[in-house]
Write a structure and sequence with these properties.
The chain is 32% helix and 27% strand. By secondary structure, it is of the alpha/beta class. It has one domain: Class I glutamine amidotransferase (GATase) domain (Rossmann fold, 3-Layer(aba) Sandwich). It has a nine-stranded mixed β-sheet with strand order 2-1-3-4-11-10-9-6-7, with helices on both faces. A two-stranded antiparallel sheet has the order 5-8. Helix 3 crosses helix 4. The protein is globular and about 45 Å long.
């Protein structure tokens, strides 16, 4: 089964040598499921010629906002709509979660409540309560698309996971992040965070592991269900 990864962001140079690119992180996360992968640099204007060039599509995280006036955003939204209508399974993570929602009629904004960074516990309907995952975002989905069902949330992030039947699944946190990568990202981008947010995030990283593998299983199962 071929999974197409749409790359919408680059990690800081200081982390790339050790931890690789965002597509590489997802390939590692989803390893062992019988998938093959191909990636397109969507943020460079590179998109597949057809939504049928893969059996499923995964959209990565990004430092950019879904609402930013960038030349690659509208074409990416158009691709999302085409894949959705063709019922080729879509998965979105963080920015991917947001851009899918925006493309399908929802709203994404810079959240007035600020940042969510570090180890955060999520309520996920199909997985469980208090599921720890790594978060790194200020933007949020603030209005739901018409066909979205909320399947995950926190007190801070109301629409943290969304499902659109068998067509799309998206989640705000980062199952592809490791503790080590999150620590290095915190050091690399500490200057963009309020001091108290950075301190709280750093403390949270010592509170235990995450359950990213549960999300990996969810994503893999979602893609495979689309082929049944």
């Amino acid at each position: 089964m071929k999974i197409g990864i749409l790359e919408t962001g680059y990690p800081p140079e200081s982390t790339a040598a050790t931890h690789g690119s965002y597509p590489q992180a997802f390939m590692k996360l989803l390893d062992g499921n019988g998938f093959t992968f191909h990636q397109w640099a969507a943020l460079e204007g590179e998109l597949p010629e057809s939504v049928h060039l893969a059996d499923g599509w995964l959209i990565t995280g990004s430092k950019y906002g879904a609402y930013d006036d960038l030349p690659w955003i509208k074409p990416l939204e158009a691709f999302i709509v085409q894949a959705y209508r063709a019922e080729v399974p879509l998965v979105g993570i963080c920015f991917g979660h947001q851009i899918i929602a925006q493309a399908l009629g929802g709203r994404v904004e810079k959240f007035k409540g600020g940042w969510s960074v570090g180890r955060v516990e999520y309520q996920l309907d199909d997985i469980g309560n208090n599921v720890p995952l790594y978060a790194w975002h200020q933007d949020q989905v603030t209005e739901l698309p018409p066909e979205a069902t909320v399947t995950g949330s926190t007190g801070f992030c109301r629409y943290a996971a969304l499902q659109y039947g068998n067509k799309a699944y998206s989640i705000q946190p980062h199952p592809e992040f490791t503790r080590e990568y999150t620590m290095e990202l915190l050091e690399a981008r500490r200057n963009v965070l309020p001091a108290d947010t950075a301190a709280s995030a750093e403390q949270s990283l010592g509170e235990g592991d995450t359950q990213s593998l549960l999300i990996a299983q969810k994503i893999a199962g979602f893609f495979k269900r689309g082929k049944q």
